[in-house]
Fold this protein.
Amino acid sequence: MCDLVARTGRHQQRYEDGRRLVAGCIPFRYRASNDETSDDEQKKLVEVLMINSQSGPGLLFPKGGWENDETVEQAAAREAVEEAGVRGDIVQFLGFYDFKSKTHQDDCCPEGMCRAAVFALHVKEELASWPEQSTRRRTWLTVSEAVSQCRYQWMQEALLTGFSDWHDNWSKGGGNACCEQL
């Protein structure tokens, strides 16, 4: 049984310029990998965590509504716990991504337009139980596997132009290891 409870409802939802504001993250970890070209020297491979969609095929990154009583970073971290059952450190803001939601149209956002703030989340802990465990399945993938299985184009863009570009730069020593403020 999970002691954590997922937030529900829209009474604290943030909106801006006719768009619902959403926070999400690309959870990642490193695992050791033997690179055959380097005489069995251990090399770290980055993997990203995706979850199944509740409404169809394909995989997603954790994301959900950004509410009035939290920062955007807190919202992204909360969604990672609620939907994927992981905790970690928000290490980088990756960008804003606009999309149209087919399921979240309401009086404040009748056309279903959303703006997602997406962050890189370095996973430190995988929870044995989490709020949406009964409806979500976690899957660790390489970046190339994640691109091919990602359900939404905007999430593929966040992975390729946000996460991959940042991570490549950061892992070569050119990036900032802490989260840049919005």
The beta strands are 15-16, 19-34, 42-52, 59-60, 63-65, 86-100, 113-126, 138-141. The mean pLDDT is 85. The CA atoms of residues 127 and 160 lie 27 Å apart. Helices lie at 72-84, 143-149, 153-171.
